[in-house]
Amino acid sequence: MTDHYITLSLLLFTIGAVGVLVRRNAIVVFMCVELMLNATNLAFVTFARAHGNLDGQIAAFLVMVVAAAEVVVGLAIIVSIFRTRRSASVDDASLLKY
Amino acid sequence: MTAPTDLLLATEQAPDALAPVAASGVFVLIAVMILVPLVSSALLVLGDGPRFDLADKRGHLLGTAASLASFVIGVVLFVTLLGRDAGDRSIEQNLFAWIHVGGFQVDMTFLYDPLSALFVLLITGVGTLIHVYSIGYMEHDPRRRRFFGFLNLFIAAMLTLVLAGDYLVLFLGWEGVGLASYLLIGFWQHKQSAAVAAKKAFVVNRVGDVGLALAIMLMFAQLGTTSFVGVAEGIEQVSSGTATALGLLLLLGACGKSAQVPLQSWLLDAMEGPTPVSALIHAATMVTAGVYLVVRSNFIYEGTEAARTAVVVVGLVTLIAGAWIGCAKDDIKKALAGSTMSQIGYMMLAAGLGPAGYAYAIFHLITHGFFKANMFLGAGSVMHGMDDEVDMRRYGGLARLMPLTFGTFAMGYLAIIGFPGFSGFFSKDRIIEAAFAENVFVGIAAALGAGVTAFYMTRLMIMTFLSSRRWKENAHPHESPAVMTAPLVVLAVASVLGGFLVLGGWISDWLTPVTGYETHELAVPAWVFSVGITVLVAIGVAVAWATYGRRDVPSTAPEKVSFVTRAGRRDLYGDAVNEAVLMRPGDQATRGLAVFDRIGVDGAVRAVTGGIGATSSLLRRAQTGFVRSYSLTIFGGALIVLVAVLAVNLA
Q1: Do A98 and B626 touch (CB under 8 A)?
Q2: Which residue in B333, B424, B465, B472 could disulfide with B399, CB within 3.0 to 4.6 Å?
Q3: Which residues of A touch B635 (CB under 8 A)?
Q4: Taking every pair of C-alpha atoms in chain B, what is the biggest distance, in angstroms?
């Protein structure tokens, strides 16, 4: 039973990770990050169930709170970049380099 | 420590162990004697600005009065000392604890004993006369006040040197006279040659001072004290090697200050200073400090035959080298400077002979102080009348125009060549006799030196005062003002009468409590030596007369001369040797070090920084600015960590 949830979590995480790596649109990358976070949340909850305690559930709550805060900041940044550069491509925002 | 007086008549006597009594009564003035010129010097040198106009006009009088005050105190103390018993003549004044660290204590002590007393009289007496003379000599110098300030500084430092009761206090005076000498040689600092000469004197003296400083450190290391009394008491316990090392180090110090070979090169250049300075510092007093040091340290030399021999050798070599240089120089002051070196060589030689010679070293030092100061001031008077011309080849026939200068100079001349009855006759004869008693070859060399002295001094006399007039155009020789000739007269009288100090053996009796005394055994009666030396002197005079008196003296120095003359003109290649042995290798070494620093040290540092810079400019290429490549790196890193954790767990 637990194995299936973990497998699903792995799949979700991998999809998110690949999305972060291959997609250029900042919004999509951002959604993929959320997908990864939720994959870990699923893993946390699964392990909490497996071990019969609440540690994983508390961790999942923590991740949700952090993710919510991150969404606020991240979206604000993306919007302001889009406003100045008329583009949401992460590859275009490459000024900070050597 | 009252030695019965009848003991003084014994032929051989060790010095009483130094056992000074605390200063009381009139002897509390010992420190005042030093303070008066010191304060006056501070006023004259440091006072500046419009409020000191008066000091510019009257400063020389203050300076002279300060020196005179010290002289008066010196005479009062000397007379008081004369009234005491022979064993009681050592007075110590302890002012305050100067340095007090753990077991090491140095007090600011002054020791007034028969030896110091004679020096005090010489320094302040001749010093005062030269102050008076300088009033006239420096009349037109805009910085005359400063000159007198420096002279007073010198008097204070020199008195500290001879009155010190501790080697470290002596060192204070030693450095003080070095400073005063530096300031006064370079007094006319606008002249490049004077500035360079001052620097040279300072640097060469530092070499000697290192010797003295090391000797003091060695005393502290071995004996734990540096006071004369402490060292004299403790010296018997140290090994003979230590005593020899102390003796040689002190000799090195003495060589620097007294311009003895191998540290002689500065004295001839020091003649760049004003002539009163040459007379006071570089003839009568400061350059004899080395002799004082050796005589004062007699308790150290007592235990070391080797160091005493070194003193004799240094004295003998300098005696001959100085006389040689004196024969070849045409500059009147340099000829006299060569003579000074030579005469101090005599004193060193005597000091190296031990108790048989100490008293005569001091005796010759005093008579030399009189007649050489007299002749230097006479030379200054001649220069004053000849528009500062120093080349004797441009003098001639000045006797009639400067009768007082000539007359007083002649007294000095007769004294230095040892004309019977004059002071130099007594003092030099005693030294040569003592030298013969020690070693016949040393005696012969010293006697020959006396003949050479007669030659170069006669040459100087003939070229300056007699012979035909070879003046430059516009020269109007004239006698100097009374303020300059009066000191000459006093010093001339002293040059004639100074020899009477030895009559009845007074000088050796007087110094016995400090230095000890032993009579020397001579194979032949003393009068044979006197006659023999006088004959040598007569030969020297005759040769000089035949060479310079009967023939015309060319007004430019002849070019084609023997090697002997050429070497003498170039100070026996002293500077060339210093340059070849010390300066050039030093130059090469610094140049080599500079190259090593540039290539070795700087090269290594630059290679490291360059390597780090190149590596980082390669590494920074990884910072592409593409967020996705960063995240790939993060995932890659996470993967590696994951694999590593799994590998460890599974293993």
Answers
A1: no
A2: B465
A3: 17, 21
A4: 122
Q: How far apart are CA A81 and CA B273, in angstroms?
A: 84
Number of Cβ within a 10 Å radius of residue B51: 8
DSSP letter, residue B295: H
> Percent of chain B, pLDDT > 90?
66
The string of DSSP letters for B21-80 reads EEP-GGGGHHHHHHHHHHHHHHHHHH--SGGGHHHHHHHHHHHHHHHHHHHHHHHHHHHH
Residue B499: its pLDDT value, please? 87
Per-residue model confidence (pLDDT) at position B13: 52
The model's confidence at residue B3, banded by pLDDT at 50, 70 and 90, is very low
**3-state SS class at B95:** strand
What pLDDT score was predicted for residue B52?
A: 63
> Does A81 touch chain B if contact means CB atoms closer than 8 Å?
no
Contact B67, B151 (CB under 8 A): yes
Quote the minimal CA–CA distance from B196 to chain A in Å.
60
Residue by residue, pLDDT tens for chain A (98 residues) are 789 999 999 999 999 999 999 999 999 999 999 999 999 999 999 999 999 999 999 999 999 999 999 999 999 999 999 999 898 898 888 888 87
**Entry pTM:** 0.81
- What b/e readout covers A29-51, taking b as 16+ CB neighbours within 10 angstroms? bbebbebbbbbbbbbbbbbbeee
Q: Give the total residue count for chain A.
A: 98
A20 vs B: CB within 8 A: yes
Cβ pair B621:A90 closer than 8 A = no
Cβ B446 vs Cβ B435: under 8 Å? yes
Contact list in B for residue A21 (CB cut-off 8 A) is 628, 631-632, 635
CA-based radius of gyration for chain B: 31
